[in-house]
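Subgroup meeting minutes
Present: P.N., E.W., G.H.
Scribe: E.W.

1. P.N. recapped why we're keeping a running log of single-chain structure predictions: easier to compare across weeks, and new members can see raw inputs and outputs side by side.
2. G.H. added today's entry (411 aa).
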Amino acid sequence: MFSYNLPDGGLRARGFINAQGEIKFDPPVFEQRYTTAVRILEDPLWGQKFKKVVDFGCAEMRLLSLLRRVDGIEHILEVDINEDLLRSNKLKAEPLVSDYLKKREGPLRVELFKGSIDASVAELQNVDAVIALEIIEHLYPKTLENVPKNIFGFMQPKIAIFSTPNSDFNVLFTMLPNGFRHDDHKFEWTRAEFKEWALNICQQYPNYKVAIIGVGDAPPDKKEIGYVSQIAIFVRRDLLNHSLIEPLCNQIRVDCNPDPDFQYKEIFAVDFPYNIDERSKEEKLLDEARYQISRCQRVDRYFNRDLGVYQVPLTVLKDYIENIDATMDELLCVLKQDDIEVKGDYIILPEHDEDESSYRHYDDCYDDDYGTWDDARYDNENIATDDEVGACGGSSPGKDDATYESEENWD
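Output recorded in log:
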């Protein structure tokens, strides 16, 4: 096993008993699961982005709206055994009007498949990340037995995220006649049982290590029962900068079962619109440099009154340079060719001659560490009031914000 904590201090969530004596969660548990899965994928700890992701047991595809916004993802497979459910929700996979107005920077293909989590099919090859939230407890024993074989033996993803109910928490629920939280559950594991299942997988497939976390806090006086949902994060050893125990398979056998129910059936597929940037690396560097120069000539903190020039740190362009796999030397070469003066670690700019009254002062919304800006708090003429925005543009919640209590469930 390895130790894992969500970035940025984890989730802000709580569990409490309401006036009717019922356990409630804020935010709802399904939201906590989705948010946690996305934050795991986005964690810079892994040192890379995941391009191809499969969401097993996707049901109404609520997670898709978050997944499609994760930086670096280029291919999402939404898989469920229920074809009718996929067809009735396929509109959720289509691009929105906003996707055409503001196109993505990279490609994204979304495919909906009717299929089983234990089927080793060609569509699942080269998957980087597997998400399987609240699905294993719905599986019959034979299917559950085949899941590790398919995911860790056949697919061999870089990361796999599983969640399942924690039966230790059931003392706070009124159980259904079958003894579980949902009428289709085949089992519900204690924390010890789930940990044993996860460790057995790592023993059988030693290229993987696992960390166990959870979502859905118990009330303060019931912390000993753990979380309402327990989550196992299986990570391939090379993603943790450890050597692989066994070589990855280059030639992978795909089962050729003639049973049509075993094969994947494509229900829908769509490619999202995106911008194709045909500029050379040098052109990109120069355009970004000119853009930042234009903005920095309006930031008072960069103006050296003694010298009568602006001194802009080259670090303003640091993140952009890394994003396009360029080096600082390449940037300096481009700046020199465009007659932009550089001294030491600073770009030297002449004093801006525009009427000072027309300046926008960006100081409060510029982050020197990250080289990023936030213009959200500015409109064409006026700065919004503190009641309307946060410190750098985040809008305050409206009075009519939707609540999800009606959608809260334990499945």
